[in-house]
Predict the structure of Sigma-70 family RNA polymerase sigma factor.
Amino acid sequence: MMALIAQQQSILRALIRSMIPGSSECEDVLQETNLVLWRKRATFTPGTNFNAWAGTIARFQVMAWRQRSLKNQSLAFDEEVLERLSQAASTQWENFQGRQEALQHCLAQLAADQRELVEHRYFERASLAEFARRKGRTHAAVRKILERVRASLRDCINRQLQGEVSA
């Protein structure tokens, strides 16, 4: 569970920041969210959507922060504006989740060598030159392969998302 929470930090931070823009308290709300995620870990059902579960908890933590801020009158936004920001953030979160699920599906469809290249470059954040040396290929050839794989992933993701819309 700790690994899942750690993997989602940048996503949760972005979600929280989108709901409380310009606030220096984003990190505090993120830490509160992490504490709640940890305390409620037993309520998460493995195999279900962790991002949706964590996002819901983050939204509740932002609402709690807003209530505390309103009590302190340090929040300058109108409640209607805050609600619109929250709705927009929720929509963005759902769109992001759909894209992430489509990406996972499309990555699984790649040939093993293509998936290895993507993982090397983006998950391990390693250089193409290193990958090219390891595979005995030129840097230019590996860069071209990666360009094609990225285009293929983009097209696959778009097809997946269009399929969801028409379904």
About this structure: DSSP finds eight helices and no strands in the chain. The two ends are 33 Å apart (CA to CA). The helical segments are 2-7, 9-19, 26-39, 50-72, 79-109, 112-123, 128-135, 139-166.
